[in-house]
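Researcher: Let's do a round of design. I'm pasting the structure tokens now; please hold your answer until I've finished.
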């Protein structure tokens, strides 16, 4: 699975970066919210892909983790430490060593063999993230989320979509609903659903919806896109052995 994600993103990295303009407006909104959070803090940016939704001058240290070497190849900034690794296993990062962990538009690229496994994978990654955070540290997730109805359609079509994408050499994509993502964050972080700060991310103009799979292939007006983009922030409240 990891190999497929790696090969896929190695192959599309150049096109992805060229098509990244349609996401700029999202990065600006994320940056506005998280710049204060990352100031003088150690940041781990998972699935960074060479794209930064924050001011690089602010953190005391920036670690970027990505499964694809090529997605990180555009980064030459000396302030950034690159780690080539799968988000499912963050063993290269010491526990309780990071102040802010960021996942921007990456979680929907990490799935399992079926719906149940995909949700378990999500829970596993959130658990890894939590163990790397210092007490008081923050999880930041920016994701494209489906409505419950579209999620159900995605569920029915899971194996078919997977087979088609597999045939095309593209790694599977799997989108959560806001409730599923929030439930899993709340469960792993042992907090209440209401303790997760959730903000709408607003897009405008035209979107490259397949930017992560077939960048530049189609452009649609934002009003037609099926996702809601949200920024979710959760705090690791106490120390334990997670
Ligand atoms: C859609 S891109 C998002 C990149 C960037 N965060 C952004 O906002 O544009 C998804 C990124 O996640 C990375 N990725 C995919 N699967 C991964 C995994 N299992 N572990 C770590 N990174 C992964 C890809 O290589 C790619 O760089």
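Researcher: That's everything. Go ahead.
Model: Designed sequence:
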């Amino acid at each position: 699975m990891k190999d497929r994600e790696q090969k896929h993103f190695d192959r599309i990295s150049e096109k992805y970066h060229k098509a990244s303009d349609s996401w700029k407006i999202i990065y600006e909104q994320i940056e506005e919210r998280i710049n204060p959070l990352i100031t003088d803090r150690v940041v781990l940016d998972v699935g960074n892909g060479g794209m930064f939704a924050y001011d690089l001058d602010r953190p005391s240290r920036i670690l970027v983790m990505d499964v694809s070497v090529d997605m990180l190849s555009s980064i030459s900034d000396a302030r950034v430490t690159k780690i080539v690794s799968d988000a499912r296993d963050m063993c290269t990062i010491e526990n309780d060593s990071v102040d802010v962990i960021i996942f921007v538009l990456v979680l929907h690229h990490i799935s399992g063999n079926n719906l149940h496994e995909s949700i378990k994978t999500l829970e596993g990654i959130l658990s890894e993230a939590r163990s790397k955070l210092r007490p008081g540290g923050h999880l930041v997730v920016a994701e494209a989320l489906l409505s419950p109805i579209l999620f159900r359609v995605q569920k029915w079509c899971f194996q078919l979509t997977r087979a088609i994408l597999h045939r095309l050499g593209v790694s599977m994509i799997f989108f959560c609903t806001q409730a599923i993502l929030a439930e899993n964050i709340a469960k792993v972080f042992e907090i209440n659903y209401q303790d997760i700060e959730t903000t709408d991310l607003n897009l405008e103009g035209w979107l490259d919806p397949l930017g992560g799979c077939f960048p530049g292939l189609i452009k649609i007006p934002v009003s037609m896109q099926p996702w809601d983009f949200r920024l979710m922030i959760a705090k690791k409240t106490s120390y334990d052995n997670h």
